[in-house]
Amino acid sequence: KFVPEHDIKKMQFEQNDDFLVRRDEVVFEILYQTGMRQTEMRSLRDDDVNKISKTIKVHGKRNKDRIIPVGE
Fold first, then answer.
1. DSSP secondary structure, 2-38, as one string
2. What percent of the chain has pLDDT over 70?
3. 12-39: per-residue pLDDT in tens?
4. Which residues contact 49 (CB under 8 A, 6 or more apart)?
5. H-helix or E-strand containing 72?
6. C-beta of residue 16 within 8 angstroms of C-beta of residue 29
7. Cα separations (Å) of 20 from 32, 39, 55, 58, 60?
8. Which of 45, 32, 39, 29 is nearest to 60 (CA)?
9. 69: buried, middle or exposed (CB in 10 Å: 19+, 13-18, 0-12)?
10. Band of the pLDDT at 1, cuts 50, 70, 90?
């Protein structure tokens, strides 16, 4: 499902260093920026994330891999 823009604007994450809050914020940002599916997100491994080139390698439907750029 797609999240309407007006609902996204309502979302605000608490500004603290709690691990669960930060984790949820990162998961949301990655899903929002990349458009990847939940199942793709769940199957990510550490070596799928390239911090230097700021890309994520995603293994998607029909066993196809794709490289997705991500922001800061």
1. PPPHHHHHH----SS--HHHHHHHHHHHHHHHH---H
2. 96
3. 766 777 888 888 888 888 888 888 888 8
4. 55, 56, 57
5. none
6. no
7. 18, 20, 24, 24, 26
8. 39
9. exposed
10. low
Residue entry with tokens 């550490």: 46
- Cα separation, 42 vs 24, in Å, equals 13
pLDDT at 46: 93
Q: Both tokens of residue 57? A: 């390698």
Is-contact 70 56, C-beta < 8 A? yes
**Is residue 39 classed as helix, strand or coil in its secondary structure?**
helix
